[in-house]
Design brief:
Blueprint (H helix, E strand, L loop, with lengths): L1 H17 L9 H31 L1 E4 L2 E8 L2 E11 L5 E8 L10 E2 L7 E6 L10 H14 L3 E6 L2 H7 L2 E2 L10 E6 L4 E5 L2 E6 L4 H19 L1
Parallel strand pairs: 5-10, 6-7, 6-9, 7-8, 9-11
Antiparallel strand pairs: 1-2, 2-3, 3-4, 10-11
Helix pairs in contact: 3-5
Length: 227
Amino acid sequence: MAAKKTESKREIIKKEEKIEVKKPELGKEKEVELKLIFGIMIGLIVLLLGIYFIMSELNKVEYKGLAFAKERFGEIPVYRYSYFFNDNQGQLIKYNLFLRNDPRTNTVPIEGEIALGGNIYISINSTGLNDCKESSIAVASLAAFIINNQLTLVAGTPDLEESKANNVSHITCEIYQNNPVILIQAGEETKIVRENNCYRINVANCDINPAIEKFEVQTIIDAKKRQ
């Protein structure tokens, strides 16, 4: 009898071993769904980064080693070039140069290297430029470019009588031979010519804005060459 009981107990144990205990599934469908969602999210991020990179490249303009970003200022398309420099106190300054004209298509000719430093004198001969709508904006842009690059600016006129009448500085290339003098005047051809420390920006047909922008861009290019 004892042997039979032992055998029956063994059979019961074997039957119990054969019975598979099914563990509850840990939401395999949800796991697959989460993986799918994460995959889609990663794909979208990669796609957005790709689109951003492509658009950045499309809006980038290269000109003589300078990378301009094509942007919009309201309804006006502009070209921005950013660079850093240290001021007189050693503080790092970021400057943004904005252009209205594409630097690649600005064909204003320029003769001589531009090297500005110390006291900069700007002399404006208003004869022939008063009727140009962009004159004041272009001259203000050049003045801001010089001042914001931590240079000292003195403005005036080459006309002695006008300087007396308006109480402004009388500035000519002959008076300030040892300093950079920028003479802006009307001319038969729009071009920039350097003669010693004198920079003559001649403007024809009121093309003053392209001439000023060419001067600013070339100033940066020549400064980078010297560095």
